[in-house]
Structure formats: structure tokens, C-alpha cells
TrEMBL record:
Key words, A-Z: Hydrolase, Protein phosphatase
Top-level division of the source organism's lineage: Bacteria
Coiled-coil parts of chain: none
Chain's gene name: ptpA
Presence of the UniProt keyword Hydrolase in the record: yes
Organism: Pseudohongiella nitratireducens
Protein name (Swiss-Prot/TrEMBL): protein-tyrosine-phosphatase
Classification via Pfam families: LMWPc (PF01451)
Domain Phosphotyrosine protein phosphatase I intervals: 3-151
GO molecular function, one term: protein tyrosine phosphatase activity
Catalytic residue positions: C9 (nucleophile), R15, D125 (proton donor)
SMART domains to which the protein is assigned, alphabetical: LMWPc
Enzyme class: hydrolase
Length: 158
């Protein structure tokens, strides 16, 4: 059975593509690409069809992650039925997702940093800040994606 993971931020050009690329790399390294599928989306619609922000791409590339093939899309109600894990980067986006969700799929929606043991903590939006913000996103997302993958693996074996 395939497990499907959706990373969600506001624009789908900074944080969630970073999480998408990092999670995919971790899954490939563990030989689980046939078992765990990752995608990303934004709650906003401004950047639909666009590649990740150049600052996001450059920061990720320095750590060996190529995000150039990714294109932004907007999250849909159908995604919330389709994806087993819907991972929000911050509380506002989690709230937006909860507002779209039915009772049956609310439990699928969590914050990324929860999986690293940081309850209610957020991956800060780097869009309007300096280069350091993009490095901070990478640090947080690398740690939390590793923890999330361990959790998904445990859940898969039941
Ligand atoms: P993201 O960052 O949600 O991490 O992709 C943002 C990208 C664009 C905007 C806001 C946040 N924006 O307002 O256009």
C-alpha cells in the first residue's frame, strides 16, 4: 500500500517545496520511493505554475537538493481525502486546511514541527526576509522530515 504525503505552505514556492524535495531525498535514500509518495501545494493561488523561489532553489542546491523541476499548485478539497499525511508549515495554513477538511480527514492534518517534538511550532515564512531565513527553513525542515519519515515507517508496519 502506498502512503501519500502532502507538504503545504502559503505560496508553494518556499517552505513546502523545500520539504517536498528533502522528504523525497530521504525516501530515495531509504529505498522507499515505490512505497511513499510526496507532493506539495499552497493554500494561496498567487504562484500557481511557478518554479520555487530562486532563493529557495539556491539555498536547497547548496545542500544538494534540486528543486528546479517542482511547480506550484493550490491545495484542493480532494487532496485532503487523497493524502494520508497533510503537513502544514505553520498554524495559519493548518487552520486553512482544517477549514477545508471534513470530519473524516481532519486527523490527517498536522504541523511539520510537531513530528520533531515541537508542539505548535512553525516553519517561519522566509519570503520577505533575508538569506538567513532560507537557511533556517532548511535546518528546521531537514530535522523534522527525518522525524516524520520515522513516524510514517512505524505507521506503515502497523
Ligand atoms: P511559502 O512563502 O508559503 O513558504 O511558499 C511565501 C511565498 C509567497 C508569498 C508568501 C509566502 N506571497 O505572499 O506571495
Amino acid at each position: 500500500m502506498t502512503t501519500k504525503v502532502l507538504m503545504v505552505c502559503l505560496g508553494n514556492i518556499c517552505r513546502s517545496p523545500t520539504a517536498h524535495g528533502i522528504m523525497e531525498t530521504l525516501i530515495e535514500k531509504e529505498g522507499l520511493s515505490a512505497d511513499i509518495i510526496v507532493d506539495s501545494a499552497g493554500t494561496g493561488d498567487w504562484h500557481i505554475g511557478k518554479a520555487p523561489d530562486p532563493r529557495t532553489q539556491q539555498a536547497a542546491k547548496r545542500r544538494g537538493y534540486d528543486l528546479s523541476h517542482l511547480r506550484a499548485r493550490q491545495v484542493t478539497v480532494a487532496d485532503l481525502d487523497d493524502y494520508d499525511w497533510v503537513i502544514a508549515m505553520d498554524r495559519q495554513n493548518r487552520q486553512n486546511l482544517l477549514n477545508m477538511a471534513s470530519d473524516a480527514n481532519r486527523d490527517r492534518i498536522t504541523l511539520l514541527l510537531e513530528h520533531a517534538g515541537q508542539i505548535d511550532a512553525e516553519v517561519p515564512d522566509p519570503y520577505y526576509g533575508g538569506e538567513q531565513g532560507f537557511e533556517q527553513v532548511l535546518d528546521m525542515v531537514e530535522t523534522a522530515c527525518a522525524a516524520l519519515l520515522e513516524r510514517i515507517k512505524l505507521q506503515r508496519v502497523g
